[in-house]
Each structure stands twice: as structure tokens, then as C-alpha cells.
Fold this protein.
Amino acid sequence: MRIEHAEVIVCSPGRNFVTLKLVTSDGVVGYGDATLNGRELAAASYLRDHLAPLLIGRDAHRIEDTWQYLYRGAYWRGGPVAMTAISAVDVALWDIKGKACGLPVYQLLGGACRDGCLAYAHASGRDVAELLEAVAAKLALGYRAVRAQAGVPELRKVYGVATGSEAYEPAARGARPDEEVWDSRAYLRHVPGVFAALRAQFGPEPALLHDVHHRLTPLQAAQLGRALEPHDLFWLEDVTPAENPDALRLVREHTVTPLAIGEAFNTFWHCRTILQDRLVDYIRVKPSHTGGISHVRRILALAELSQIRSGCHGATDISPVGMAAALHVGLAIPNFGIQEHQRHEPLVDAVFPHAYRFDDGYLHPGDEPGLGVSLDEALAAQHPYVAAYLPVNRLADGTMHDW
Ligand code: KDG
Ligand code: MG
């Protein structure tokens, strides 16, 4: 079964997605997600101009060899653009293998280790009252775990907090990134009270998560982790800049609040120190940016040795193809932790009809052969690419600040 056709489809049904479509000599179609938020066209070009021509004529069943060829065979390794593109190839090949075998991908990965994947929803509010309402709404939908983000009184806008009735979307459409003003001290003063209010309202049972978006120094992160201990967080995410695992060491020494990191990682090499030294409790690598199903499952197998569990990134910039891939992995690994589920808008679900489903707090990838996701190309074509960027942060004096 040879790969005969490789095509990159860029569409924007409300937000941008890059999808790789592979077609084999037997007519089997496989999809991979190559969406790199705010850098979509770079990943599309890497795929279209550099990887797609290498795929034509290759045996579609040789997933591992293709991965090795594209990663180990390349002089320029790693980085988000290349790894997003390789991820899409790998995921599309697993989709093809599943369809060729008549089995859902999770069966090829060893079969289900659980009945469903615990999911967490997003809730945000410009103030505590609005956040309490948003969390209540997510619990009413059946979620047992909710990520809670709140506005900070001294700050005009806070990333991750919806600004009105519209759901929060990580990237805003426009030719340049929005600029936001950040103040870590104001944020640190406010957050513990927010979680005290959440626990007072909802009691001890719901799992509560919080995302810091890489903005604190190690000492500030340690202070926040300690201040949140009485409120029993499921995890505190991305407390310090992602590229320096050593920063987490100091945080770890001072707090027992569970930590998560990894949504911006793209290879095992970003994870090595963290896994070896057990610097977090949850690792957020996912098939879409971290080398596909093949590479992510290796990272998660190593994580298991350190009692670290998975917490795959699942914001809206992970397309339904990427979400399905994460769910097949999540269902099949022993050390699954939780799956992020920032729901897509109905138009996105219409462009990518899918078999995965949410029920009573859990996601299940479904039992269709392959990933169980397709692409309505005619509908996708009605929604062409629109430039969009994640925002940047500056301090009040204009200094650029970390993500
Ligand atoms: O593209 C980046 C977003 O997906 C990210 O900023 C959202 O932090 C995020 C999360 O945890 O979902
Ligand atoms: Mg995050």
C-alpha cells in the first residue's frame, strides 16, 4: 500500500487549521493535524514543500521507518514547525493503518486501559462572580474537572479570560499580535482568593486546574503553589518559561501543589530532565506538535517510569484530528491523567465530522476504523485562511514579558 497523494489543506472555520491528507494506492485516506497556532503557514509550507514530495511512493504501513526518515534522517532536527509537520505525517499514517486493519487506532496501540478519558473544560470570568457562573455552567454539562482563569482587577485584559459573551479563543484574527499588559505581583495577590471562592462555592469534589502561561519566576511560582495548597488544585500549569526545566526544581522544593508543563514541547529532548528528575506530575505533550502518536507514546512510556501522567493539550488550536489522536493514545496508555477539552465551535465540528464524544465527564475516541475523523473539503474551502496571532505581553513600562 503506497502513498500516492499528499495534500495540505488550510482552512479557517472561525479559526485556522492545517490538515494533511494522504491517499494510498488502495484509496485509503488518512488525516493529520499540522495546525501551529499563529504560525500556520510555516507548518503548511514545511509539509507541502519539504515533506510531501518525500512521501510519494513510500509504503504507508511503515510508520516508524517514515518517522525515523523524517526526523533522524534530517540534518535540521526539532523545532515546532518541523515537528508539527512530522506529527501530521505520523498521525495520518496511523489513521491509514487503522482503516486498513478495520480497527480504531487505540486497538492498534494495545487496546483500551479505561472506559473513557477524564476531560477538563475551560471556564473564565472577568471577575470572581462571572467565573463562578462559568464554572457552574461547565459542571452542569457533566465535567468533573474545570480549568479556572479569572481577570485581575488591576489588569485591563488577561490571557485565557473571555472578554464578553464570546468563548475565549487563544489567537485573535488580525495582521499583528494584540499587546497585553502584565503584572505578576497583581496576579499573585489575586489568584489565591479566586480559588478560595471556588472551593467555598463548589466544595472539595470538582477537580480545579489553573494555567499560569509561563509567566512567573521560579520563586513567584513557588509562592503561588504554596498559597494554593489549601485549595487542592488538580494541577498548576506552565508556571515558569517552558524552555528551562531547571526553573521547576526550585518550585518543586517549596510546594506540593501538582505541576504540569509541556504544551510547547516538541520532542523528547524537552522532556528528558523533567521526566528523569520528576519535576512535574503531568506532562502535556500531544500528538499534534510532539512528533505524532509514535513519539508521544514513547515520551509517555518514559513518563510512566517516573509516575508522571499524561495531560494532553487540547485547546481549540488542536484540530478535531489532533484531538482524536490524543484520545486514542489516552485511552490506551496505562498512565493517562486527564485530557484538556476546550470545545470547538459547531462550524469546526461540521468541517471535521468526528466519532469522538463527550459523556458524563469523559471523552471517548469512538470505534470507527482509524482516528474516526474526516474532513468536509467543500465546507473547508468556503473558509479560507485568515491571519491570526497569539497576543504578546509587556510590563507597564513597556518591557517584553515571557509567555
Ligand atoms: O496555541 C497556544 C494555546 O493553545 C495555549 O496558549 C492555550 O495554554 C493553553 C491551554 O492550556 O489550553
Ligand atoms: Mg496552557
User: Anything to note?
Assistant: The domain at 108-368 is CATH 3.20.20.120 (TIM Barrel). The mean pLDDT is 97. Residues 211, 237-238, 263 surround magnesium ion (ligand 2) (CB under 6 Å). The radius of gyration is 20 Å.
